Amino acid sequence: MSHIVSIRTRLHDPVAVGAACQRLGLATPTHGTAKLFSGEATGLLVQLPNWQYPVVIDTTTGNVNASYVCCFWGDQAQLDRLLQMYAVEKAKLEARKKGYTVTEQTVSGGAIKLQIIEGAHA
Description:
This protein is α+β, with helices and mostly antiparallel strands. It is 26% helix and 28% strand. A four-stranded antiparallel beta sheet has the order 1-2-3-4, with no helix packed on it. It has a two-stranded antiparallel sheet with strand order 5-6. A hairpin with a 4-residue loop joins strand 3 (55-58) and strand 4.
């Protein structure tokens, strides 16, 4: 039986954040405090390509803090890709914890299709 799900996510898992960064060719996230345009934020720091300020992920709340003003300090698509890769990597981690097999396919428009099979061996 097939099911299609949409995932709305908060970023709580530092392992999945790290896997998403590795997949995107980004530096490994580090924990710290970063100066943003208005104020500071503490959490996992992720530097996206060509972004003036880092993205700060509070894994306790799952919130993402990013200084972004319509293309002046970075490309929104970079943040969107990070969020997408986090969702993919988190889903794969959780499925594999339960012993499921996961296959992945990129489909039109950059969407990613995961097939998770219960009872199969990874």
